[in-house]
Amino acid sequence: MEENPITNPPERSPKTSNEFGVTLILSLFFGLFLCVDLFSDYNPRKLSVPFFLAAWILLLVIHEFAHAAIARAVGWKVSQIVIGSGRRRYGFKVGHTSIEFRSIPLSGFVLPQQTDYIAPRLKHFCIYAAGPGAELLLSAVLVYFVGPESLLQRTSEIPIIAVQSLIVAALLGSFINLLPISFSADGKRSMSDGLGMILCWRFPLEPLQDKEVSPSQSSTV
Questions:
Q1: Which residue has the higher pLDDT, 136 or 214?
Q2: DSSP secondary structure, the chain, as one string
Q3: Residues 6+ apart with CB under 8 A from 135
Q4: Are 193 and 80 contacting, i.e. CB atoms less than 8 angstroms apart?
Q5: Pairwise CA distance, residues 58 & 115, whole Å
Q6: Whether the Cβ atoms of residue 114 and residue 70 lie closer than 8 Å to each other
Q7: pLDDT tens digit string along 134-149?
Q8: Which terminus of the chain has fewer Cβ atoms in its 10 Å neighbourhood, N or C?
Q9: 8 neighbors 220 (Cβ within 8 angstroms)
Q10: How far apart are CA 16 and CA 87, in angstroms?
Q11: CA distance linking residue 175 with residue 26, whole number of Å
């Protein structure tokens, strides 16, 4: 996700203790309802919901690290990778990159630093496309190895249900991220990967005065 090419990343978070408390209570109620429904009349097919939620978290990590990997591959630096939204719960540094895990694993962002102006628009496009592209690639690989006929059938086999849930989560996540939409987060404008892939071709091409851009010139993916 990106606000625009020259702003800092948004804090998509419940910032007050009351907001965080409401979010936590709703999450607990949802989890309790899910457990009661799952075990009251157990059927392996009901595992698709918890498998989907677990897959969403896994795919969020894959999505954001794919952005970061392509940013590094095109020669740019990555100053920050954030998994989740809300309050910071855990973090560490790998080289010059800060990696954070936050309370609510529903979204995330990567903050690359543009270090050159060699085909910058193409590089921005590749970085934006990397997240949903990784999800689509994973879906294609799973379909290839498991077989499309196995994925479309109703089954009680838990491994197949897990793979089906992972593919559905990957396809849904990539679809949402590719929608060309913008939104407001904490008073700042942000954009989806899909919109970024379109608007990046209008990003400025002026050369850098320094070898490395300042933080205010970084972009958030």
A1: 136
A2: -BS-TTSPPP--S--SHHHHHHHHHHHHHHHHHHHHHHHHT--GGGGHHHHHHHHHHHHHHHHHHHHHHHHHHTT-EEEEEEEEEEEEEEEEEETTEEEEEEEEEEEEEEEEE----SSHHHHHHHHHHHHHHHHHHHHHHHHHHH-HHHHSS----HHHHHHHHHHHHHHHHHHHHHS--EEEETTEEEE-HHHHHHHGGGS--PPPSSSS--GGG----
A3: 59, 62, 63, 170, 171, 173, 174, 177
A4: no
A5: 30
A6: no
A7: 999 999 999 998 888 8
A8: N
A9: yes
A10: 10
A11: 26
**Nearest CA-CA partner of 221 in 60, 101, 69, 110:** 110
- Residue 129's contacts (CB-CB under 8 Å, 6 or more residues apart) are 70, 193, 197
pTM above 0.70? Answer: yes
Tally Cβ neighbours within 10 Å of residue 33. Answer: 10
Q: How far apart are CA 124 and CA 5, in angstroms?
A: 9
pLDDT digits (tens, 9 = 90+) for 176-193: 999 998 876 545 567 899
Instruction: Record the tokens describing residue 135, joined without a space.
Output: 């999800």
Residue 51, token pair as written in the block: 């498998």
